[in-house]
Every structure is written in structure tokens, then in C-alpha cells.
Amino acid sequence: MYIFEFGFDVAEKLKKLEEKNGNFGVKKGEILLKKFPDGEFYARVIGNIENENCVVVKSIYNSDELVKTILILDAVKRSKAKSIMLVAPYLTYMRQDKIFLDGEALSAEVVLKNLKNYVDKIFLINSHIFRESGEKTCYGIKIYNIDAFSEIAKYFKNLKNPKIISPDEGASDMAKKCAKILKCESDYLIKKRDMVTGKIVTADKNLYVEGKDVLISDDIISSGGTMIEALKVIKKQNPASINLACVHGVFCDAENFLMLRILADEVVATNSIPNKVGNIDLSNLIAEELVKNLIKK
């Protein structure tokens, strides 16, 4: 089995797991990937992978990365791989998974149907299109959604007096997962619409976090505006510390990102997207989930 990976260390983690779970014949694949002066990309598989099972591990966090990934998958497919699995810790364009207005494009369907042309199965991590982990079929393609909140909880295992807070009720199930691992309580903030401005704001709520080491967790932080409001509400309640964590750290607003780091004692994300605080490596989690699926076969 060839592993083609970009920014992760899944092949080495899989080799270690082989000791307990049998030999999968893990080998690191090599791809020549380059960019031409006009901005176009080029991909070529180095070596013979004919009739081999292949896994491509690559985050797809913007349009360029999507094009790169499609070219990589095409190169692997044209090299006559036996099977291809794609692990995309972050997959862009998934947030438009419903039609709200006439004439809109359904970006999630467009991207997934395109990837379906190349792969047998896709592994995603805390994808926007699924709230629950496990395998589902979407637009005719098998998708396995992996939950990474266990990795966030492990990262904060040394908090002395933790309490987990989610930014809204919709994300409270994620907070409960972390709380179960850390053996502590959880709660959630309440969002409401300002009747004057029409904006969604975070309401004041007594979270009983005085003297607590608060961990506020979410699946994704984009601009960070909502999370700034949440941190301000928590900070007024005199916690011992405030720790902010997310699976996918987009952090597309530089000023808001700076404010998050001022308000929180620690800001951390996984490495599903390259960012300055991506200190939680997902390589081992990905390897473990691949092993589960390989054993099922």
C-alpha cells in the first residue's frame, strides 16, 4: 500500500501500527508536484504503483489545493492503481451543502462528484456536511467522517480544573465529547439576534467558570468574530485560564486572530489547515482510522 502524503506523517504512524494489526505493506509514494510560471500545476507519480492500493493524504483548504489534489489523483489513477482512498483532513467548499436561493451552485456536490471520478472512498475530519462520525454515502461516494475532538481533549489533559464550553448549543455535543475524556462538566453559550442591528451576538450567561480552566472548543474558526464575543463573555466570569481550540483553524481575519490570542491564554488548532497555532498533529488519528477500515476489508 502506497501512501502519498503532504504535510502529514501517516506512513510512519501506520508502520508502527502494523506491529499490532498485521502487515499492510506500507510504502511511501513519491509525487513530483510543481508550479509553472503561469500558475498552472503539474503532477507525476514517480515509480511503479500498478495494481497497488494507494492512499493520498492531503488537506484541501483553498482552490489551488483542490486543483493540485485532482491532478495528483489523476496521476495516481493513470498509473493504474488498484484502489485509491483520499484522506482530506480539511475539504474546502463543503459549507454550501444546501440551496438557499434560486440560481445558486451547490459547491459541496460539485466538489464531491468531481472527486468521485478518481477515488473509491474519502476520509474527512469533522466535516461540515456530517455532524456524526462514521461512514455514509453522499452523492454516490463513500465518505468516512473522523472525529478529532478526542485529540483536542488529549492536548489539554493537564488542565487542573477544566470545564468545557461550546460557543453555541448546536456545538454542545462536541463539548460533551471533550468533557467525557477530561472527566469534567460542559456547558454552552447562547447566541441571539440583536433586534436593532440584526447581527447575531453572544448573550451573557452564567457559566459557573470562576476559578476554572476553561476550554472553549469548536469544529471550525473562520474569521473569529463570534469566538471573540464568546471569549469576552467568559473572561468577565473570572476563570483561572481560558483556552481556545478548534479542529479547523481558518483564521482568515488577521486582526481577529491577534485579538483571539490576546483574550485567550492559549489558542490551538489541529494541522488540518496550515496555520500558526496548528500544534495538534492529526497523523496518528488518521493512521488509526485507516487501520480500522483496512481490518474491516
From TrEMBL:
Chain ranges of the Ribose-phosphate pyrophosphokinase N-terminal domain: 23-116
Keyword ATP-binding: yes
Keyword presence, Transferase: yes
Documented EC number(s): 2.7.6.1
Catalytic activity reported: D-ribose 5-phosphate + ATP = 5-phospho-alpha-D-ribose 1-diphosphate + AMP + H(+)
EC main group: transferase
CDD domains linked to this entry: PRTases_typeI
InterPro entries, sorted: Pribosyltran_N, PRTase-like, PRTase_dom, Rib-P_diPkinase
GO CC term (a single one): cytoplasm
Listed Gene3D superfamilies: 3.40.50.2020
Residues in Phosphoribosyltransferase domain copies: 148-249
Keywords, sorted A to Z: ATP-binding, Kinase, Nucleotide biosynthesis, Nucleotide-binding, Transferase
Lineage: Archaea, Candidatus Altarchaeota, Candidatus Altiarchaeia, Candidatus Altarchaeales, Candidatus Altarchaeaceae
Protein name, per record: ribose-phosphate diphosphokinase
GO-annotated biological processes: 5-phosphoribose 1-diphosphate biosynthetic process; purine nucleotide biosynthetic process
Record family assignment: Belongs to the ribose-phosphate pyrophosphokinase family.
Name of the encoding gene: prs
Pfam families per the UniProt record, alphabetical: Pribosyltran (PF00156), Pribosyltran_N (PF13793)
Top-rank taxon: Archaea
